[in-house]
């Protein structure tokens, strides 16, 4: 009997020492990774019981029975550049961060309204605001977000010229409102949507050169027009001054002519008065004869100016002598 008990105890000890390390390791990992754990600040864990969503485990200490409950993993993949080669990285995490995160998209090609191909680099910052929607409403959120951003940006760039995109790339960044409307059920909030770089290479250089030439031609045309306009203004001013001088000369000539005619009239009147003064003492009742003689002299002058025939007197051209002759003949 003693021998049998000894053998039984020996077997128990042997089995215990043989499986003890495995049992201890199993208990350690079960207690550390599944059963008892701590959720840190700004992180959250999705808990499932029997394959269904149970609750969100907030920061603090928690216990999960490994037989009925588990942590729901959050799987995603993204692209990175290594030595100018694009690599796709896949990850699966059971702890979801609530901090702001950045997604840098590889550059993609767009076609502008003026049919020019260019490349755009984008950066998006987002923050998880609802871990339940992130896990259950979308699969591989970063990849889905990249497809959505590509579609929205290409649509917007198709309505813009290359010059507008280069001069104000933040027009694309203003699409953050439209983007947020699409991802509102994904449990994230878009914090930043920024264009890092716009490239168009040879077509861009060609277009910029054409634009530069057009601007130079435009400036040259403006300078030419200004010179022509200034020349026209100077010619108009010179012509105006010449016309003013001509008008002043003509006016002065008219004034001098009028003054000469007035002086001639005055002289004729003075001569007439002198003739009358010389005839009046002996005139008496011969006023009619005097008037007739005066008119006759004027008529003779008119005839001499308008015809080739000349009426000549032996007394010369002195009007007084002519009138005496006429009055004497009348008597």
Automatic annotation (TrEMBL):
Keywords: Membrane, Transmembrane, Transmembrane helix. Residues 34-216 form the Band domain. The chain crosses the membrane at residues 6-29. The keyword Transmembrane helix applies. InterPro entries: Band7/mec-2_domain, Band_7, Band_7/SPFH_dom_sf, Stomatin_HflK_fam. It comes from the Eukaryota. The keyword Membrane applies. GO terms for cellular component: membrane. This is Band 7 protein.
